[in-house]
Amino acid sequence: GLVYESLKPVFWSTGAQTALAEAEVEYQDRQDTAVYVKFPIATGAFAGKASLVIWTTTPWTLPANLAIAVHPKERYVVQQFQMVAQASSLPPAQSNQDGCVTLVLAASLVGAFSAATGWQPSGEPLQSFPGSKLEGIGAQHPFLPRTAIVLTADFVTMDTGTGAVHIAPGHGDDDYSLGKANGLPILSPVDDLGRFTHDVGLPELVGKYVFESNADIVRLLRERGMLVAEQPYQHSYPYCWRSKTPIIFRAVEQFFIRIDDLRQEALAAIKKVTWLPAWGENRIAGTVESRPDWVISRQRSWGVPLPVFYSAEGEALLHPEWIRKLADLVAKRGSNVWFELDDIALAQELGLPEGTRHRNDTIDVWIDSGVSHKAVCANHPALRDPADMYLEATDQHRGWFQSSLMTSVALRDRAPYKTCVTHGFVVDVDGKKISKSSTYSKPMDAGHFVGKHGADIVRLWVSSVNYTDDVPFSEEMFTRLGDTYRRIRNTLRILLGNLADYPAVAGDAVPGSVEFTLVDRWILDRLQGVIEECRAAYAGYEFHKVYHTLNQFCAVDLSSLYVDITKDRMYCDAPDSPRRRATQAAMEQIFGTLCRLLAPILVFTAEEAWGYRHAAAGSVHLQIFPEPQGNLRDAVVREQIEELLKLRAVIGQAIEKARQEKLIGNALEAAVVLQCDERFASSLPREELEEFFILSDLTLEPGQETGATISHTPHKKCARCWRHRAAVGTIATHPELCDRCAEVVEAHA
Fold first, then answer.
1. What is the rounded distance in angstroms from the CA atom of residue 746 to the CA atom of residue 269?
2. In 3-state terms, what secondary structure has residue 214?
3. Alpha-carbon distance 169 to 164, whole Å?
């Protein structure tokens, strides 16, 4: 009982000559002519003395007018007006001898009406009453020989117009519902091409396109003295998504799905789905709450047949067994069989009663895509049903997301997806949407950018943006993104270089015998935080957070701090020194983790880097995704490093000042006296602090205030590590080296 046939207004594309669903409608700004029109009161106390005045932006629908709607509870007035400006096109003959005209409209809109038309109130209202008092009276049609009945309706609003709404039951949803409730005929004197038929009642309009007839109708109103005022009106108007032509509301026999029978189940199913971003839930719920019945028939010569047959008497027949037979026939011979076979041949093929007919109507394409959960997921055991995630653009809350939801609720009483992720549109630097249907001077095909920049750069760009908003795009963005890519690639290269003499370990286990230094423990603690942040971001489909987390980790934590600080031990310590091996153990963890965290985004780069070190373990894409290790978390170390970074900044400022004053050439030439908290100063070895601050000569002094004093070190420069040390020049065998470097050179001579 969900599907029914009815004559009611639908979105109609005159360009495509077919009915449309809401999801097939686009909105564009458009300028039309809005008119204020008199309907002279024909019955009741004010018959022949006053006119109801309506406002409409679609003059072409006036030939289909059958009623006028007013709000039952709003106050209406009978008011005389006098023209004081030339905004009106009402001929003088239509006013009283004193230049006044008597109109009936909502009391709250008198001021707005006057401002828009130039007609100003003359004296106090002659009468005031609720709209319910107008119900049932007749008003003469402005140019056709019939009377419009006044009806009351709650949908009449007081935000625009006059509070009196022109009702054409064949050209609007509210109009149709009100007309049907009051027994009015459904008049729609327009054909498939949007041209007036003979039912329009005016021979001069027959065959004219409705939008081209607006000027004729305005002229006719002016000639009949029924035009109170006209004005250009800019508004958002529905257009056909395919033909890009303005659509009309038109009453046509179509098939519909009863949405009211599904609405509450659909709203309940929405609450059980994860919506990303979260506002997606309100958006789709709002469209489901207000959605009218779904028109599912289309007048097209291609597509999936609407499997409706008609008896010899014209009754629509929807028999499940006939539909099943037709589905089997289409599976064997294709959907064109519906169009290729005539009624007799099709009836014989399907074994239908003699005289059975069929029409060439097809099913809304949103049914096609909307039942993919049943046609694909439910019929393939390897796939999950319901699907883990549906991904589409912001316009699909009334499109695919909703068509999938409604069909799934109808068939299986649940949503077809666990999560819905919404993305914005790609726009140019001016905010203009870039699409396949738009003309654009630059190549916008992804293949162009993959060929020019590489697939990983394209993937990195996608991951770098917050796709839930519209995404600005330009060729220049790829150029800038190349810097980020090179930074990440260079980080992997540096890690590989530092691990050249360290045995490969492809897991997350850290050797228990390693004695990590403070900075090693800090970077491993930081790495666990990065893992946590990336896992959470991947789980939430927030790829831009993964990008920013990993970019920050590579650029700041690794390149600017850890790699820079440990460079001396990696290059100048003995190859098997404990602290060098500790750093290599940490770098092994970092490298393996980075490759796996980057793999979903930089698929080729991660695979290439991983292969240089862990080829024997197989592809990086087949590895276990990193998980944070609680034993490597260390809040105390985190606090110590935060304090050291503050001191590093103090020293850095002092060194920069000394360099500008030509006191020193670089930081390694500085003898630094650091005043800081005594407890903190005594908690770490001076050698470890010198390494962290990348200094040659550091002296600590307890002090209440933190500060640094710079002088030029008296020590000579080591030719190997470039540190200025007291031992340089004192070692007979290696006078150019410091004691550490001399020992390493001797051991590996």
1. 75
2. helix
3. 15
Q: Give the confidence band of 648 by pLDDT, cuts at 50, 70, 90.
A: very high
Q: What is the DSSP string of 641-663?
A: HHHHHHHHHHHHHHHHHHHHTTS
Cα 445 to Cα 457: distance, rounded to the nearest angstrom: 15
Q: What integer is the mean pLDDT of 562-582?
A: 96
Average pLDDT, the chain: 91
Residue 190 Cα to chain centre, angstroms:
37
Question: How many Å apart are CA 556 and CA 564, to the nearest integer?
Answer: 10
Q: Which domains does the chain have, with CATH numbers?
A: 8-250 (3.90.740.10), 506-633 (1.10.730.20), 642-747 (1.10.730.20)
Cβ burial of 450 (10 Å; 0-12, 13-18, 19+) is: middle
What is the spatial distance between Cα 520 and Cα 530, in angstroms, rounded to a whole number?
15
Nearest Cα residue to 489 out of 454, 524, 523: 454
- Residue 733 per-residue DSSP state: S
Q: Are 739 and 680 in contact (CB under 8 A)?
A: no
Other CB atoms within a 10 A radius of the CB of residue 645 amount to 12
Nearest by Cα to 76 from 17, 156, 132, 4? 132
CA-to-CA distance for 589 and 596, rounded, in angstroms? 11
Direct distance between the N- and C-terminal alpha carbons of the chain, in angstroms, rounded to an integer? 93
Query: Is residue 448 very low, low, confident or very high in pLDDT (cuts 50, 70, 90)?
Result: confident
Q: How far is CA 549 from CA 247, 555, 594, in A?
A: 48, 10, 11
